[in-house]
Amino acid sequence: MTETTKFGGPENDNQKAGETSALLSNSALKTEFLGTNLVQGDKHNVSERVIVITSGKGGVGKTTTTANLGMSIARLGYRVALIDADIGLRNLDLLLGLENRVLYTAMDIVEGQCRLDQALIRDKRWKNLALLAISKNRQKYNVTRKNMQNLIDSVKELGFHFILIDCPAGIDVGFINAIAPAQEAVIVTTPEITAIRDADRVAGLLEANGIYNVKLIVNRVRPDMIEKNDMMSVRDVQEMLGIPLLGAIPEDTNVIISTNRGEPLVLNKKLTLSGIAFENAARRLIGKQDYFIDLTSPQKGMFQKLQEFFLGEE
């Protein structure tokens, strides 16, 4: 009888030897990450959290959100693994500036072509942040739910506090496979009726698949358009979806610049408003109390600015 590997494919002698080697390498890699000079991660004694970053509609900033949340959490001292599950449309490596260091992908692990430690890329700027890239040219059906679950289980063994999965847009098989290992979700949308409708559909599918801890990020908010009633306020979006708000990210042309540089907004020496908003959303995600910031009207009180520019006037 043909045996199968942990990731669901046929197993041969080379793969058996590879698994033994992988266990040893994973142990060494865990030691490497645990030995990282952390700011405060170990002080919290947190258990790992697997969070899928998803959306219904493409182009709403889901991957940008994953990169900035992940980097922000790592800067707070936690060990973070970012998993790109968007098969065929890999972009997370570009946003992090790690595209030239991708030698192996999650698909190679699933197919027994490499070990986890060979595919996992540690960021040189923040060594407690790691990326696992996905293939650019494989079909979504090549990865099953079991594959994804086993892959994330292996990553968990390395001692990460947060595992963020960058989910494919849409609601097809790639979405279903990507959300399989997650216990929590962050839905990214924009204040557009089409994006909101798709986000609502995704929220229902998450609940149907047993993911009830869901939070909302409203991206590309334009305060000037809200004031003219040309755009829904964040409060409007939140009330339509009925999902707790994690963050409101203003429209920012610096996103294009940071993407081209392969450097998340939160690493800019001079933080923009959107960079600060991402950092605050990351702090709320890890359980810290924080507020929404608007710096365009310094003469107004923080709560008043929040109401007027992000949640709409009462």
From TrEMBL:
One of its GO terms (molecular function) is ATP hydrolysis activity. This is Putative septum site-determining protein MinD. Belongs to the ParA family. MinD subfamily. Keywords: ATP-binding, Cell cycle, Cell division, Chloroplast, Nucleotide-binding, Plastid, Septation. GO terms for biological process: cell division; negative regulation of cell division. The gene is minD. Residues 51-265 form the CobQ/CobB/MinD/ParA nucleotide binding domain. CDD domains: MinD. ATPase required for the correct placement of the division site. The keyword Lyase does not apply. Pfam families: CbiA.
